[in-house]
Amino acid sequence: MSLEHDIVAPLAAQGGRKVHVYLTDLWWSQMKTAGSAIYANRHYLELYHKAHPERLAQNGTGKPTIIGDVFIHPSATVDKTATLGPNVSIGPGAMVGSGVRIRESIILGNATVNDHSLVLHSIVGWNSTVGNWTRVEGTPCDPNPNRPFAKMENVPLFNTDGRLNPSITVLGCNVTVPSEVVVLNSIVLPHKDLGQSYKNEIIL
Fold first, then answer.
1. 3-state helix, strand and coil shares in percent for the chain, rounded to the nearest 5
2. 177: helix, coil or strand?
């Protein structure tokens, strides 16, 4: 569904209705896909960096290694040997184990990423668990930075061959990913216990 084509245009075509325009040269983004959430998270953290840098995590003795802009909720627990960033948000009550590497990702509330796991370009849902030595990775789907006013392209979920287009990996709420597996470019619906590695799949 397209706001401008499916809603605004028909409303404007009806008699007696007025459509107003709000012009801005500030950053904004539509949130139509999971990939756009990762993109918006990056820019939201950038706004924090400019307006409220005290809200972002800092490097220090006994703290995890921070690269770039990272938000860690005060109630989250992150091991001092973990490396986070750039562009990572850790939600309330989340737990990040030792040796974990997280980049360009969102870890939602009460999720657990266990020791020595890697999370890249992914969203880990509420109350989900990622096992030890596990890799959860998606494919970035950012707009072209060389185009002025570039925006997120809303690529269909499937290509013309019926295959899943590469995108970020999303673990729904209450998903359990076992140790020593890889979940790549996949969407895992809520309340699933995975037992193996997955690539380019939707797990229903």
1. 15, 25, 60
2. strand
Q: Is the pTM of this model over 0.70?
A: yes
Could you tell me which residues come within 8 angstroms of residue 2 by beta carbon, excluding any fewer than 6 positions away?
Answer: none
Nearest to 79 by CA among 55, 101, 46, 106: 101
CB atoms within 10 A of CB 70: 25
Q: Which helix (H) or strand (E) holds 77?
A: strand 77-78
**How is residue 169 annotated by DSSP?**
E
Residue type, 202: I
For residue 58, the one-letter residue type is Q
Q: Is 148 exposed, middle or buried (0-12, 13-18, 19+ CB in 10 A)?
A: exposed
Q: By C-alpha distance, which of 98, 99, 80, 100 is closest to 88?
A: 100
CB atoms within 10 A of CB 203: 14
Note the pLDDT tens digit of each residue in 42-94.
989 999 999 999 999 999 999 999 999 999 999 999 999 999 999 999 999 99
Tokens standing for 53?
Answer: 């840098």
Domain spanning 31-203, CATH architecture: 3 Solenoid (2.160)
Q: Are strands 176-177 and 129-130 parallel, antiparallel or unpaired?
A: parallel
Tokens encoding 85: 């960033």
Sign of CA dihedral 194, 196, 202, 204: negative
Ordered alpha helix ranges (H), the chain: 9-13, 34-51
- Here the tokens at position 157 are 């979920």
